[in-house]
Write a structure and sequence with these properties.
heterodimer; A: mainly alpha; Four Helix Bundle (Hemerythrin (Met), subunit A); 0% strand; globular; B: mainly alpha
Chain lengths: 169, 358
């Protein structure tokens, strides 16, 4: 297998994602965990950009890195006092966590190794914005208008709920 | 019009003739990165000098005078002073996040900076979802500011960071809505394409009423987005000393400072690109002689002239209006700018559907 620039970039991104993901779950301070999570999301966006799917990469950055992580950091700042550290895990919990993560790893490996992947066809050039828009808003066979509307109703419900909790009585 | 793409494709051809494709692409990426950072620094220095001179003019002062002709070397001296200063490490702070925060802010700023088309064929990141990517990149900076405020273990920094976060998240909405108004008019999100569509008139003229409203909303929201007066609450000196970067010293403070000024330039140049035609010269359909004369001026001069004009407008606003309170800022955004922006988007859709634009 020859070494191409694409492969090197992929390996660097993959190592970055794996190291940040491991650090995110092993660190004791919750804000550091949120920061490592941000790095994982950056790396994932990088892989999308490498696959030339810049729309998904930009959405990943906008929604997860710019939205969710900010929300996490905000809520951590508002709720936890600083110097807050996770308590030591009890041996029982440690064993349970280890077993469940090993099981998850096993299932993932099983699915990935058994699955017959389609031969990878790398298309140069980006997907047209118009195609994505039509797919999102169409009601036909491959249309996503129903999930789109359901999500908007869910978000509306979240806003109303947040207002209910936060309003002055 | 001079097409810079000729130069880049010539360099690419020269490199690929002596080495494999992958290595050539890698070398080009490194070279572009170095050029990008150099341009970033140069623009930061120009912006800081301009800020000091413009501020002085509005306050009937002279500004920097001693170093160099008209004080033009003052900022270079300041940069070297900043580079030699000690970086203080705060006790009981989260050192990892404390050292990381300025770099997240710079990363977001450089990523947004790379989207700007400077000349024909001289754009670095030119995705077909360019505007979406620009907004994504500029939204990351908030994380850096929040981390900076939290990790420096100082309650005033934390308050500054919280204010800044609330303000930047809110005003991102207005920026998005006002740019979307223009996207409705152009039906493209690619920056180079947006500039090309303005060959027969800039969008602020083609889109008339809704475009002007969107431009004004964009200027207000952009000013708030980069935390500059009258929205400079996060660093209100009288209440919070310096906000989220109080505890930073030396070049770490310098990075925040530089990022703030270049963000001002980025906001202005996006305004220039989306509303005022970017590097596209002023063309009036029908007057061919006039258009030919305008075409003789290179694109990057048009671009920098427009961008610096918008920068000057924002500086004028900053040094004229008093600072707002935090509740006033959030009221302005959520009760006025967002509804107006939504209605304006609807108005633009009506204008486009009934072909009322030029």
């Amino acid at each position: 297998m020859e070494i191409t620039l694409d492969l090197i970039v992929f390996i660097v991104l993959a190592l970055f994602i794996v190291v940040s993901a491991v650090l995110a779950v092993t660190t004791k301070r919750i804000l550091r965990a949120a920061t490592y999570l941000l790095f994982v999301l950056f790396g994932t966006a990088g892989i999308y950009f490498q696959l030339n799917y810049s729309f998904l990469g930009a959405v990943q950055l906008l929604v997860y890195a710019g939205g969710m992580t900010v929300l996490y950091v905000f809520s951590i700042l508002l709720t936890s006092s600083e110097g807050d550290q996770a308590e030591k895990l009890k041996p029982g919990k440690m064993v349970a966590g280890l077993v469940s993560s090993l099981a998850a790893l096993g299932i993932c490996l099983f699915v990935m190794l058994k699955h017959q992947f389609l031969p990878s066809s790398f298309e140069h050039g980006e997907l047209a914005m118009r195609t994505i828009g039509h797919a999102l808003m169409s009601t036909g066979k491959d249309g996503y208008v129903l999930p789109f509307e359901v999500i908007s109703i869910l978000l509306l419900a979240c806003i109303v709920g947040g207002l209910m909790i936060a309003r002055k009585r | 019009m001079f097409d810079f793409g000729v130069v880049t494709s010539w360099i690419h051809a020269q490199l690929t003739s002596v080495m494999p494709e992958g290595l050539a692409v890698f070398l080009e990426c490194v070279a572009i990165g170095v050029c990008l950072l150099l341009l970033y620094v140069v623009i930061a220095i120009i912006m800081i000098y301009m800020e000091r001179k413009v501020c002085a003019a509005f306050q009937c002062r002279l500004g920097p005078q001693r170093v160099g002709k008209w004080g033009s070397l003052q900022v270079f001296c300041d940069v070297f002073k900043m580079l030699t200063k000690e970086i203080i490490i705060i006790r009981h702070s989260d050192k990892f996040l404390y050292n990381l925060a300025p770099y997240i802010v710079i990363l977001a700023s450089v990523m947004a900076f790379a989207c700007i088309p400077i000349n024909k064929g001289m754009e670095i990141l030119d995705f077909n979802v360019g505007i979406l990517f620009f907004m994504a990149a500029s939204s990351i900076g908030v994380v850096g500011i929040l981390l900076a405020g939290w990790s420096s273990n100082n309650k005033f920094s934390l308050i500054g960071a919280m204010r800044s976060g609330a303000q930047m998240i809110s005003y991102e909405l207005s920026i998005g809505l006002s740019i979307l108004t223009i996207v409705v008019l152009t039906d493209t999100m690619q920056f180079s394409e947006i500039v090309m569509r303005q060959a027969d008139g800039w969008f602020i003229f083609k889109g008339h009423i809704p475009a002007v409203i969107a431009f004004i909303i964009y200027l207000i929201a952009g000013n708030a987005e980069v935390n500059r007066g009258p929205f400079d609450l996060p660093e209100a000196e009288s209440e919070l000393t310096a906000g989220y970067h109080t505890e930073y010293s030396g070049m770490h403070f310098g990075l925040f400072y530089v990022a703030e000024f270049v963000n001002l330039f980025i906001i202005s140049s996006i305004a220039a690109t989306v509303f005022l035609g970017g590097w596209m010269p002023l063309h009036i359909p029908g007057l061919d002689g006039f258009n030919a004369v305008m075409d003789a001026i290179p694109g990057f001069i048009w671009f920098f002239a427009k961008a610096l004009f918008v920068v000057w407008l924002l500086m004028w606003i900053k040094w004229t209006f008093p600072r707002l309170r935090i509740d006033q800022i959030l009221t302005l955004e959520w009760k006025y700018l967002v509804p107006i922006g939504l209605l304006n988007l609807l108005l633009m859709v009506v204008v486009v559907v009934f072909k009322l634009h030029f």
